[in-house]
UniProtKB/TrEMBL annotation:
<dbReference type="Pfam" id="PF03631">
    <property type="entry name" value="Virul_fac_BrkB"/>
</dbReference>
<dbReference type="GO" id="GO:0005886">
    <property type="term" value="C:plasma membrane"/>
</dbReference>
<protein>
    <submittedName>
        <fullName>YihY/virulence factor BrkB family protein</fullName>
    </submittedName>
</protein>
<keyword id="KW-1133">Transmembrane helix</keyword>
<feature type="transmembrane region" description="Helical">
    <location>
        <begin position="135"/>
        <end position="158"/>
    </location>
</feature>
<feature type="transmembrane region" description="Helical">
    <location>
        <begin position="178"/>
        <end position="199"/>
    </location>
</feature>
<feature type="transmembrane region" description="Helical">
    <location>
        <begin position="92"/>
        <end position="115"/>
    </location>
</feature>
<keyword id="KW-1003">Cell membrane</keyword>
<feature type="transmembrane region" description="Helical">
    <location>
        <begin position="34"/>
        <end position="58"/>
    </location>
</feature>
<feature type="transmembrane region" description="Helical">
    <location>
        <begin position="206"/>
        <end position="231"/>
    </location>
</feature>
<keyword id="KW-0812">Transmembrane</keyword>
<feature type="transmembrane region" description="Helical">
    <location>
        <begin position="243"/>
        <end position="265"/>
    </location>
</feature>
<keyword id="KW-0472">Membrane</keyword>
<dbReference type="InterPro" id="IPR017039">
    <property type="entry name" value="Virul_fac_BrkB"/>
</dbReference>
């Protein structure tokens, strides 16, 4: 009974703060920032990968980003993104690519602002530190995607060698598509842990961010499934928005995802407030 009361207080606290602190508007800002950052990030990452000689990076990057989206939402966008990424470009160090990195870092800053509000903390770090940290996130994500693209190229070869040497491994090797989904999901989880742990002001323990991450993942799964089912059965976006249908669907999907993401931070903050209140009562 006490756990039910505690859970209700925590959720009421999280939902109340989300509503009182303009969480709905913040989710709109985050969704638009994510959309503005996503494509520049992929362009920057692909340009850097090509500069380093990884010409097959575009396909891997598209899969890593969009494999965790519902197919009805991801398929038309991923196809166009792949077409853009495979356009031959000139030198790596161009104004457009630098601008792409800047737009991508703005997306990281939007995540920081939303989490600072959710965790109810005041930002005290300098602008230069924050911006350098955002660029570092973009660069590390690019290097991670690059490493994964190399692994996915080598994985089928390694799998065939392993199966020849150890026949009993065959049923457990799976397919490259399966491994892409596993890797994309792992990248998502690691990314969530990183942004909750390092982006907001203040310090948190690893266990402090786990409840919100679990809530976020469960909410994203439920929200994306319901939205995909809605699109499949009842959607009128194509007739309403014509050629803009794909982008409108992406914006609404990102808005739903942003609400759930911010609620993950609110949930962690509410749990911490509840524990501190309990400690004061016991003390």
């Amino acid at each position: 009974m006490r756990r039910i009361v505690a859970a209700r207080r925590i959720m009421n606290d999280a939902l109340g703060h989300f509503d009182a602190d303009d969480g709905w508007s913040m989710a709109s800002h985050l969704a638009l920032s994510a959309l503005m950052a996503l494509f520049p990030f992929l362009i920057f990452a692909t340009a850097l990968a090509s500069f380093l000689g990884a010409n097959a990076f575009a396909d891997t990057a598209v899969h890593l980003v969009f494999d965790t989206w519902p197919q009805e939402i991801a398929e038309p966008i991923a196809r166009e993104v792949f077409n853009v990424l495979t356009i031959q470009r000139g030198d790596f160090l161009t104004v457009s690519v630098i601008a792409a990195a800047l737009f991508a870092s703005n997306g990281i800053e939007a995540l920081r602002v939303s989490l600072n509000r959710a965790y109810r903390v005041t930002e005290t770090r300098s602008f230069i530190y924050r911006r350098l940290q955002s660029f570092a996130f973009v660069f590390i994500a690019t290097m991670g995607f690059l490493a994964i693209s190399v692994l996915l190229v080598l994985a089928p070869l390694a799998a065939r060698i392993a199966e020849r040497q150890f026949v009993w491994l065959g049923p457990y090797m799976g397919t490259i598509t399966l491994w892409r989904y596993v890797i994309a999901s792992s990248v998502l989880v690691v990314g969530l842990i990183a942004v909750h742990f390092w982006l907001p002001a203040g310090k948190r323990k690893f266990v402090d961010v786990i409840p919100g991450i679990i809530l976020t993942l469960a909410g994203w799964l439920a929200g994306s499934t319901l939205f995909a089912a809605y699109l499949e059965r009842f959607s009128t976006y194509v007739s309403t928005y014509a050629g803009l249908a794909s982008i409108m669907i992406a914006v609404i999907f990102l808005y739903i995802v942003s609400i759930i993401f911010i609620m993950g931070g609110e949930f962690n903050a509410a749990i911490r407030r509840y524990r501190e209140a309990r400690a004061r009562i016991r003390g």
